[in-house]
Write a structure and sequence with these properties.
By secondary structure, the chain is largely without helices or strands. Helices cover 13% and strands 9% of the residues. It binds zinc ion (2 copies).
């Protein structure tokens, strides 16, 4: 089952379970759509794999299968193509 991580590892923006902006790799490294396209060039900085859109878990199931609340933020991992801000 997906963890449904709550944020983008790169820019730390919130990615709620119903966000169409969330993208994941096969290990569920989680990024927003903008970071995948602009900063990562579609390649996961942690494992080198590609991304797919994260499936949205139906709201009724979130109570029984809650999303992860553990934020993972690794700005270094995606800084290769980005100006430090
Ligand atoms: Zn991002
Ligand atoms: Zn990955």
């Amino acid at each position: 089952m997906l963890e449904l991580r709550p944020n983008c590892e790169c820019c730390d923006r919130d990615l709620p379970p119903d966000s169409p902006e969330a993208m994941i790799c096969t290990f569920e490294c989680t990024f927003c759509r903008a970071c995948v396209a602009v900063n990562l060039g579609g390649v996961c900085p942690n494992c080198g794999g590609g991304f797919v859109a994260r499936p949205i878990r139906p709201g009724a199931l979130l109570a029984k299968y809650p999303p992860s609340s553990k934020r993972i933020h690794r700005p270094d991992g995606c800084a290769g193509n980005v100006e430090a801000t």
